[in-house]
Amino acid sequence: MTTTLTRPATTSAGSPAPDQPAPTHALSVRDLHVGDPSTGHDIVRGVSFDLPRGGVVGVVGESGSGKTLTCRAVLGILPEPFAVTGGSVEVVGRDTATLTPREWTGLRGSTIAAVFQDPASYLNPSIPVGRQVAEVLRVKLGLRRRAARERSLELLAAVQLRDPARVWAQYPFELSGGMLQRVLIAAAVAVEPQVLIADEATTALDVTVQAEILDLLAELRASTGLALVVVSHDLAVVAQLCTEVLVMRDGEVVEQGPVSRVLHDPQHDYTRLLVREHEQYGLERFLGTDGGELR
Ligand SMILES: Nc1ncnc2c1ncn2[C@@H]1O[C@H](COP(=O)(O)OP(=O)(O)O)[C@@H](O)[C@H]1O
Ligand SMILES: [Mg+2]
């Protein structure tokens, strides 16, 4: 087993002051609507969930069902012309509707972070990957050059990249997709966020590497208390990691509940279809033979 991360006792930016009672939820989404305010047309309609500290919630649904817009609303990075048109998002007890753009920037990458499908596009092709992680530490945590380098090496080890010193000095084109996603996860957890959103983070990877990355996320959760939102069009990904799942279709949540219940006893036709589609290739691994434990 390689190095793991532990959360230091300090409170990071965006956390409540030590004498305040800690909010119970890392993330709380209430009846979220996302749409184009100029037309009044909502694409995401009524998403609600609570993510406890250290919890894992999954969002599953076919392409175009509104998963990414939901994530981007939670991260405060909706593309034009979209905006939050209803409902609320609280990050560690903080209502994000009241945040200024500057406060949003502070919250992202300190309290809430994300990894997406295409890791290469988030890295500068002409800078060694380790230096890019170190840069995050310098900018976001104010670490000096040497400390940032040392910490970035620890982070590369923590995301289970073999030979971190060698990887540190490599350029993105020299690394595989799975390695690049590990680098991106290292950069995302560098600032010890409370919430990490993984939006199709393993979709572009082959099945073996996908499983390794999911294991890594589970380990980071266990060692740091990081809360995860795992988004995938693939029910098997969500089944592997999550305790609660939301099934989205056409901008709405059609079914929501504990993963074990949703997989064993789907109530909605669309969920039944998703479960049935996956039965051919591997979901029974998570369903178990006795209909009991998922993991
Ligand atoms: N930048 C954008 N401009 C215009 N329409 C968009 C944009 N992003 C998403 N949409 C539309 O919003 C809907 C939901 O998209 P998205 O949240 O990306 O779905 P998912 O992540 O579930 O595949 C889709 O119908 C898509 O066409
Ligand atoms: Mg998406």
Label this structure with key terms.
single chain; 295 residues; alpha/beta; Rossmann fold; six-stranded mixed sheet; 36% helix; 23% strand; disordered C terminus; binds adenosine-5'-diphosphate; binds magnesium ion; ATP hydrolysis activity
Compile the SSE list and pairings.
Blueprint: E1 25-36, E2 41-52, E3 56-60, H1 67-75, E4 83-91, E5 94-95, H2 101-107, E6 112-115, H3 129-141, H4 145-158, H5 164-168, H6 177-189, E7 195-199, H7 207-224, E8 227-232, H8 235-241, E9 244-249, E10 252-258, H9 259-264, H10 269-279, H11 284-287
Parallel strand pairs: 3-8, 3-9, 6-7, 7-8
Antiparallel strand pairs: 1-2, 1-4, 4-5, 9-10
The chain binds adenosine-5'-diphosphate (ADP) and magnesium ion.
Magnesium ion binds next to helix 1.
Q: How far apart are the first and last residues' alpha carbons, in Å?
A: 20 Å
Can you tell me the CATH architecture of one domain? 3-Layer(aba) Sandwich
State mean pLDDT (0 to 100 scale).
Answer: 89
Number of strands: 10
Helix content: 25-40%
The CATH homologous superfamily name of one domain equals P-loop containing nucleotide triphosphate hydrolases
What compounds sit in this structure? adenosine-5'-diphosphate, magnesium ion
Helices and strands, in N-to-C order?
Answer: EEEHEEHEHHHHEHEHEEHHH
* Biggest sheet layout: 6 strands, mixed
SS-based class = alpha/beta
Q: Which CATH class of one domain applies here?
A: Alpha Beta
Rounded radius of gyration (Å): 19 Å
- The number of distinct helices, counting runs of at least 4 residues, comes to 11
